[in-house]
Amino acid sequence: MSLDPLALYDAADRERLVPEPPKRVDAPARTPFERDRARVVHAAASRRLAGKTQVVGPQTDDFVRNRLTHSLEVAQVARDITRALGGLPDIAETAALAHDLGHPPFGHNGEQVLAELSEDCGGFEGNAQTLRLLTRLEAKTFDDTGRSVGLNLTRATLDACTKYPWRRLAAGDPSGVHADGTPRFVRKFGVYDDDLPVFDWMRRGAPQGTRTCVEAQVMDLADDVAYSVHDVEDGVVADRVDLTSLDRAAVWETVRAWYVPEAEDAELDAVLTGLSAIDSWPTVAYDGSRRAQAALKNLTSDLVGRFCGAVQHATFTAGEGPFVRHRADLVVPRTTMLEIAVLKGIAAHYVMQAEDRVRLMERQRELIMGLVARLAHRGPDELQRAFVDDWHAAADDAARLRVVIDQVASLTDASAVAWHERLSGRTS
Question: What structural domains and CATH numbers belong to the chain?
Answer without folding.
Answer: 5-202 (1.10.3210.10), 214-354 (no CATH), 365-424 (no CATH)
